[in-house]
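Hi all, posting the design record for the shared folder.

TITLE: backbone redesign
STEP: 1 of 1
STRUCTURE INPUT:
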């Protein structure tokens, strides 16, 4: 009975050492004078070599993404640059209608689900899928424009650097004088005479966007 218990203990020890077989290439069995069995990875004069089969290696299967998700990851676009090529920064625009031509550069091309949002002085004035557009009826003075690419959830994907420009418009008084023949010289879009109200959009109106 004692030998059976010792044998069971030895088998248990052998099972515990089985995962180490991949590290220890050889296992040695030793039986002492009392019949006790022990195992070791170090050789001894009384040891016998035991061949132990290597533990099976389980390889994980490749995980395949759903077709829709895989396609979405493959078509995901990372924009490199978004620039405002026109107008130039700090450029002066002389236009009595307050019109401004805007030319953008985007690399790579605009994704189908994305839009370009244009802001003037911090206020959104246009959301389009064009790189060339025009803003009309801009007040006289210094302004700042910023372009952004937004996704279908209106989240900003990339933003351009802000560009500052100066809009010069003729005053209404200069227009009346010019039309009446009282001023035959060149009309300068500088500050109007004292007391002259600035020419601007009609009440309730603001900049309007259109394509070039």
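Okay, here is what came back for every position:
SEQUENCE:
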């Amino acid at each position: 009975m004692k030998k059976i218990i010792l044998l069971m203990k030895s088998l248990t020890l052998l099972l515990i050492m089985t995962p180490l077989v991949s590290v220890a290439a050889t296992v040695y069995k030793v039986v002492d004078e009392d019949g006790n069995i022990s195992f070791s990875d170090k050789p001894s004069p009384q040891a016998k070599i035991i061949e132990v089969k290597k533990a099976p290696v389980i390889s994980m299967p490749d995980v395949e993404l759903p077709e829709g998700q895989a396609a979405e990851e493959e078509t995901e676009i990372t924009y490199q640059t978004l620039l405002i090529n026109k107008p130039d920064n700090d450029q002066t625009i002389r236009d009595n209608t307050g019109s401004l031509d805007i030319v953008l550069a985007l690399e790579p091309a605009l994704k189908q689900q994305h839009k370009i949002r244009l802001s003037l002085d911090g206020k959104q004035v246009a959301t389009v899928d064009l790189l060339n557009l025009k803003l009309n009826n801009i007040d006289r003075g210094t302004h700042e424009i910023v372009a952004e690419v937004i996704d279908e959830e209106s989240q900003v994907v990339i933003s351009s650097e802000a560009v500052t420009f100066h809009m010069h418009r003729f005053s209404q008084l200069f227009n009346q004088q010019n039309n009446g023949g009282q001023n035959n010289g060149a009309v300068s879009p500088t500050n109007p005479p004292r007391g002259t109200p600035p020419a601007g959009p009609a009440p309730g109106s603001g900049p309007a966007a259109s394509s070039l």
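COMMENT: The two ends are 100 Å apart (CA to CA).
Let me know if anyone wants the other runs.
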